[in-house]
Amino acid sequence: MVHGRAARQLKRLIKAIYHRDHYYYIHVDKRSAYMHREVLQIAQQYPNVRATPWRMVTIWGGASLLKAYLRTMQDLLALQEWKWDFFINLSATDFPTRTNDELVMFLSLHRDKNFLKSHGRENARFIKKQGLDRLFHECDNHMWRLGERNIPEGLEVSGGSDWFALTRRFVDYVVSSRDKLVLGLKQFYSYALLPAEVREPSEVILSAIAEAHSVIYKPVSGSSSSPAKSEEPSGWDNVRL
């Protein structure tokens, strides 16, 4: 997801993370014409880099960002020639602190895991702070508060960072499932503030396959984030992002 005019910064990121076995699907905000032209030029140079054929106006904290993620996931699942294992969202302002080989090795050890960052607080406080007990609607590139609402009974809300790494199997579940739980969560978070920060964690915890998709809440720092101590598994270089 990119926005603005910092094309040079985006090119620096792509140079740092590029590998012929990985895939890069870039959405450019509808308001960023210059950036879109630059991304199209980049995509012409690499067979595994593409720009989304559609564009949206995405605003911070808005439901449009979540919708863009879901549509991007749907596109990637439909690209049968792209055999990817993990969906990792990035912005043009991100930059890796690990090499491609380190990232692939680490994810190879946890092929069935989804990676999210928990808010780490008591849920009642988190709900109030995020405004999940209030109804919001996105219109004219703004989020409008419409009133109060109750959290659905039995729903355990969790959230944190809106940066994540999700397995292909879980992405397929989120996009394709007709389970009432998933459909209900999509409806609920379509009228929430900062939905991208809470929807995936809630779905991982509550989904019918949560047991098969156990969550690892990654710390921002610490030795547990380093893949250097892990032994290299057989076929680790086959993981594709």
Automatic annotation (TrEMBL):
Topological category with respect to the lipid bilayer: Single-pass type II membrane protein
Pfam families: Branch (PF02485)
EC number: 2.4.2.26
Reactions it catalyzes: UDP-alpha-D-xylose + L-seryl-[protein] = 3-O-(beta-D-xylosyl)-L-seryl-[protein] + UDP + H(+)
InterPro entries given in the database record: Glyco_trans_14, XYLT
Subcellular compartments: Golgi apparatus membrane
Keywords associated with the record: Disulfide bond, Glycoprotein, Glycosyltransferase, Golgi apparatus, Membrane, Metal-binding, Transferase
Root EC class: transferase
Top-level taxon: Eukaryota
Region annotation (Disordered) ranges: 219-241
Biological pathway: Glycan metabolism; heparan sulfate biosynthesis; Glycan metabolism; chondroitin sulfate biosynthesis
Protein family (similarity comment): Belongs to the glycosyltransferase 14 family. XylT subfamily.
Name recorded for this polypeptide: protein xylosyltransferase
